[in-house]
Amino acid sequence: MEKSFVRLIEESVKQNWDLPAFSDYKGATFHYHDLARKIEKIHIIFQKTGIKQGDKIALIGRNSSHWAVAFLAIVTYGAVVVPILPDFKADNVHHIVNHSDSVALFTGEPIWENLNESQMLNVKCIISLGKFDILHENTPFSVTDIRSDVDRLFAERYPNDLLPSDIKYYSKEKPDDVCVINYTSGTTGFSKGVMLPYRSMWSNMIFAAEVIKLKPGDNHVSILPMAHTYGAAFEFIYQVTKGCHIHFLTRNPSPKIILEAFNSIRPNLVVSVPLIIEKIYRKNILEALKRPSLRFLLKVPIIDRRIKKEINKKLRSIFGDNFIEVIIGGAALNPEVETFLKDIGFRYTVGYGMTECGPIITYDSWKTTKLYSAGKSVVNMEVKIDSHDPQNIVGEILVKGTNVMLGYYKNEEATKQVLGSDGWFRTGDLGVIDADGYLFIKGRSKNMILGSSGQNIYPEEIEGLIDNLPYVQESLVVEQEGRLTALIFPDFDSADRDEIKTADLDSIMEENRVEVNKILPSFSQIARVKLYPEEFEKTPKRSIKRYLY
Questions:
Q1: Which CATH code is given to the segment(s) 450-548?
Q2: What is the pTM (predicted TM-score) of this model?
């Protein structure tokens, strides 16, 4: 088969015509033939509105079947999709729509209420993700009339109804043409539009098809934001190319709703970020392990094997016990949690990627991956460390290959800083690669703190230790006046349950500080602890916005 991203979608729609494609959790279900009809009708609206191949179309809303339909309609038309995270503020949305030169916008109704169409003058029409109604138009003719007439135009075009043989999507795709522009942040001055070409999208699908064997009819629960490359590639697009049935959690996915969905849908693959796994571990496993009798039995060799087997079984059942593996990405997994998962034989693996690679860079199956590693470079990709001794001395992670972006949209300066003429992309992450090619990530180069005698301190590693101490929900290690301070958001739920007064948390955290310093080298000791009354602000990938602190 030719190396075409759009062809992968077209073939799947034709081959899986009568299978279920999308369901909104506890809502309506669309089959692949329904998806095909909706795509055709949206294409008619694009054509009649004068939207051309290569035009940019923005898309903002919570995960839903209609979000997925809009995304597929845009890319199969040959337009460029600009996904925007639903958490971005209105000013940021206006900025991205304008900066990307988008000529149309799909939006969820609650988001639309806060937007101002007069701030987005290049947009010909704004389309609702609810019923694909026209919310606003800026054309000499009526797009609303075209929308009202779309069923008649569709019937005229397909008098015998739409058949699989009628499906012919965009055919002029070139590997280096832009397919998606993904903005890494919404803030003016910080936002960079990552231009992902068709080759990157195609290559990510080829990787997935080689290592994650899904088949038509398999179930998937979509919990990560689809406007992010990680959620889009491996919870939505890959599943579409395989004829899977995707269930979208249309609300903000709390752990309670996620577990309820896993339980009822029993997905064939689980894709997650560390935060979700760590919360499940703390709430469902750690609580049970606190029982003294269980702690004692875990020290008895033969019994300990049986108990670990039981814990593994319980953890598998939490995720629906029907999955090939749990793939964790987006940030580092807490080392204690990872050691525990490995110890009980849980089917998990940690991968590494970036928006700029659409996203995958390294991965390895749960059967062969090494503890604390992010796997090995994937098909079509190379990884190297910018260090004279890449196995032992930490250096910046450089990557090259089919997945790498074209650059940042309308930002040559930022592109030049990370993308060399030799094709190597500077990730800004730090790591080492062992003799077998496994990558071990040590942190972000911009997060690294330089110790007083020039030692490299990686705050993420210290936070991994602090986060496992009593009554810590999450932590952030920062440098203040030349000394390390741990900012801690306490686990107030556990403190309340154990009847610990808020006033006593200060002394408990001081004990935690002393405890963690016993393990740390002298140059990375925590000098003081500061309690935070609320959760730290997060990026859409659920990692803490460090720059705010």
A1: 3.30.300.30
A2: 0.85
